């Protein structure tokens, strides 16, 4: 059995991310160290529930927790007000109190939505993240961003609420279809472009297939540092949106049929090409980023027009009045924020669509 790694995230509250094999089987005992005995509502989608719900509920019960569970239909298009309201009603029907806890068992959609339900129910109760996808392991389960989508755009209603713990059982990655594994790879490649040229080279050399646990730990360590310095995205945390302006636009244009990581990969490739074409980079980056994404099973182009993408991007919450902040790769391992007038977004996207 591989070793278990723990990473402390020094926010308020501070919490531990535990990464390793076989962790779901004793998640009850692990959570007992950070939670009082209480009622735990486990939220999972219809893909994850048949795989892991019973194991998680049994482990929680064996540790002395009182457990209830709620299952919703899988897919980003269900990360909406209807499902969110149903989860809140469920928590109330189950008489959860302020001393109780929500457990988000699943990928990014589940973590975002269950976390937001925990943030709103009784004006906020504790929640824990039990990520089962690579995407939630490397990115969304850490940092306390919770949200649902509105018809006007992605993640437009949400809250910052840090989880009480994150337990990442890397055995779950084995059940992931290749496309879902690739989805998480996009956020790992994003982390490489943002943080570390050596880590990016490791990803080019297949680090995700050779040692996914090490990649998850590397991404979580980087993200923990950023979140500790800027929990509510006033500055530095905006860097984590690399690839997301165009990525969210692609998701929206596709009616959320294109998964988040695939859309972010394309958004990252587009922005890298734009940045290079517009002379914003210090070295050529676009071909290397596109090759690394493709090597990890991800797309780097889109059939949507620059006009459609710019329109969709302008509904994004990253817009502030008449400006929008882009994350621009300067070189591999270093990016910077660039505020542009919204009127410049269309030519920027156009410059990046030419592969
Ligand atoms: N996924 C970007 C962030 O958590 O800030």
How would you describe this structure to a colleague?
This protein has helices spanning 27-32, 49-62, 81-93, 108-120, 134-140, 178-195, 197-204, 207-210, 212-229, 244-253, 260-277, 286-295, 306-313, 345-353, and strands at 5-9, 15-20, 39-45, 66-72, 101-106, 126-131, 145-150, 153-160, 166-169, 319-320, 323-331, 334-341. With 355 residues, it is of the alpha/beta class. It folds into 2 domains: 5-175, Rossmann fold (3-Layer(aba) Sandwich); 178-353, Dehydroquinate synthase-like, alpha domain (Up-down Bundle). The strands form 4 sheets. The chain has a 4-stranded parallel sheet, sandwiched between helices. A hairpin with a 5-residue loop joins strand 1 and strand 2 (15-20). The longest helix has 18 residues, at 178-195. The structure holds glycine (GLY). The site of glycine has 6 residues, from helix 5. Glycine (GLY) is lined by residues 139-140, 143, 145, 237, 240.
CATH class of the largest domain: Mainly Alpha
In CATH, the architecture of the largest domain is: Up-down Bundle
Using only CA atoms, what is the Rg? Answer: 19 Å
What would CATH call the homologous superfamily of the largest domain? Answer: Dehydroquinate synthase-like - alpha domain
| Fraction of residues in β-strands | 15-25%
Question: What name is given to the CATH topology of the largest domain?
Answer: Dehydroquinate synthase-like, alpha domain
Largest sheet: 4 strands, parallel
What is the arithmetic mean of pLDDT? 96
Continuous helix count? 14
Bound compounds, please?
A: glycine
Number of strands: 12
- First-to-last CA distance: 44 Å
